[in-house]
Amino acid sequence: MGFLFLGGRRGREAELVPAAGIPFHATPMPSLRDPDSRLALLRTLVSVPLALFDALAALVRFRPDVCCTTGGIVAIPVTLAARLMRVPVYLWDGNALPGRSTRLLASLSSRIGVSYEQARRSLPRGRTVLAGTPIRSSLLAWTRERGREQFAVPAEAKLILVSGGSQGSERVNDALWSALGRIVRHAYVLHITGDRQGARADARRANLPEELREHYIVRTFLGDEMGGALAAADLAIGRAGASSIAEPLAFGVPLLLIPFGAAMEGHQEANARAMVETSAAISMREGELDGDRFSAQVLGLLGNADRLLRMANAARAAGRPHAAQEIARELLSLGGCG
Questions:
Q1: Where are the beta strands (DSSP E) in 27-114?
Q2: Strands (DSSP E) along the chain, which ranges?
Q3: In terms of CATH, what superfamily is 138-318?
Q4: What is the pLDDT of residues 28-64, one digit of tens each?
Q5: Domains 5-133+322-334 and 138-318 belong to one CATH topology
Q6: 72: alpha, beta or left? (left if phi > 0; alpha if psi -120 to 50)
Q7: 0.70 cut: is pTM over it?
Q8: Residue 190 phi, psi dihedral angles, 5° rounding
Q9: What's the alpha-carbon Rg for the chain, to the nearest Å?
């Protein structure tokens, strides 16, 4: 069985996919950087015919049994090419509010997998299934004990995991730093800052009282160690993207979500609302972020053991740690491969 990944020219997939040993083909379809710009949309639409012929040529050479796409405007010509070749298409969307591209591609897809029940309201119900969000299997190998040992966190201490996504978030980081002195008196904080803000975090750590510095653990990035961080955490704080939610849920970790206000079509706001409805999360708007409000939310949760336990149970119930395997089985079946 072979794989071919068709993706954009600017995304990180051009680095990550070949590094994983999977052939990568960059399509000439540009990503839509500014969805509100009519000029950007026009430029993108003009590229569709060229991108369609390019995708057709790549698929004719590869001869796939099934096509799997996560949507987005870059996927439109690839999906059209697959359907012209009568290749079945599996569409996956990790947001509670499917975007315009997903709604368009749904009409061309044989099967659609979603991560939220709310998403099914916007998609063909007969072909849409609740699949969950795939996460790396390597994360699930970690235990709470191993994770706490990895980051030198005592077994009885509370641990808060804070992340602003793969690039970090200045707004989330600033809110944490404003409240840091108050929070580390009650809990350990493992802060994933992003590459550009690691030095600032180190400076904040140096300004803490010496006896509290070990309570603030700084990392610019975590690979598979993220599994240890999640297994060890009592609360996760971060954005409301698909993976930022799915990974803590897989470990039954309660969430404090801060949706990215500029996310396309309000996806993160919708994701956060969906998680609040499950009782696994609470949510704060970006505009509410300051040290006092942030500290009050965090310390209020840590000080209410019953509520934190209820949220943890709800998170565990909502989690789908084996979503990747379930989606893989669906793909094999759809492609007649097993």
A1: 67-69, 89-93, 111-114
A2: 5-7, 24-26, 67-69, 89-93, 111-114, 128-130, 159-163, 188-192, 216-219, 235-238, 255-257, 281-283
A3: Glycogen Phosphorylase B; (3.40.50.2000)
A4: 876 655 555 556 556 666 778 889 999 999 999 999 9
A5: yes
A6: left
A7: yes
A8: -105, 110
A9: 21
